Amino acid sequence: MYELKDIVNRALKNCQNKQNKKIFLLFVILGLTSPEINQEQDLNLGRGGVESVVRKVRKEIKRLFAIS
After folding, report:
1. What CA–CA distance (Å, rounded) separates 49 from 5?
2. 53 near 10, Cβ under 8 Å?
């Protein structure tokens, strides 16, 4: 069973260009902020849980969108 952050990292590496990465990251954020998800029970998040994935996604978005 993979941790969510490993899946996100692997998917980002497989994205062919910046546009694909942006779209993927937006879907990740929508998924993590969805009220239907009981984040602790429905996802295998491993250590750090949602917070570590959200930090990684935010960092990647800032880099891709050149947000300072």
Report:
1. 8
2. no
Q: What global pTM score does this model have?
A: 0.43
Q: What is the Cα–Cα distance from 60 to 5, expressed in whole angstroms?
A: 13
Amino acid at 45: L
Q: Determine contact, residues 32/54, Cβ cutoff 8 Å.
A: yes
Cα dihedral across residues 61, 49, 40, 2: positive or negative: positive
Give the pLDDT score at 8. Answer: 78
d(CA 11, CA 6): 9
User: How confident is the chain (68 residues) per 10-residue block, as mean pLDDT?
Assistant: 72 81 77 58 57 74 68
Alpha helices in 18-68 (DSSP H): 18-33, 39-42, 49-65
